[in-house]
Amino acid sequence: MLTPTSNTPLIYADDGYLSHQLRLVLLEKKIEFSETNIRDDEDFAEDLPDINPYNTLPVFIHRELILYNNRIIFEYLEERYHQNKLLPENPIEKAQYRQLWWRIEKDWIKLADTLLTHKDTLDVNQAKIARKQLTESLVTIAPLFAHKAFFLSDTMGVCDCILSSILYRLKPMGIELPLHLCRPLYQYMERMFNRPTFKTSLK
């Protein structure tokens, strides 16, 4: 296992949406980091159980600290690195934003996770239900994206990093949203996907 001896964090990652979220958060906060991607390291699978008992990605390592849950990682990054804040400073606004974050995880990430399951283990019936629920939910909230540059906010935040990683994968999930009902959402997606940080996060 590679343990960083400098102050530069290391992430073990893959091409999935959770690793994508972490890369995007780090880039938005302009935090320098090193990455070991599973596609570039054939021996990676042998190391993973030693650093994460759940055997999931991504894994974040900063000196002696090892974290493997995105919510905890993002909270740590906000407290450790004060530049380019992705959460509000005001306690009330921060609590409201965290609740929004929780709703995204509960209402959309859970469905996306079902749809992005490897095809060998994908439950077709569950996927059909999840696809319908996620499509209907996104169509319902699409008009909200007409009012702010970012998701219910004038500034880029953690929720945008989480949500955009899912929206980028609509096609692999088999979801096609009606343009006439979702134009503001499509415009939001275009803004997010064209950000230099987003483009870099895909590499």
From TrEMBL:
GO terms for cellular component: cytoplasm. Transmembrane segments: none annotated. InterPro entries: Glutathione-S-Trfase_C-like, Glutathione-S-Trfase_C_sf, Glutathione_S-Trfase, Glutathione_S-Trfase_N, GST_C, GST_Omega/HSP26, Thioredoxin-like_sf. It comes from the Bacteria. Residues 90-203 form the GST C-terminal domain. Residues 6-85 form the GST N-terminal domain. Belongs to the GST superfamily. This is Stringent starvation protein A. It comes from Faucicola osloensis. The gene is sspA.
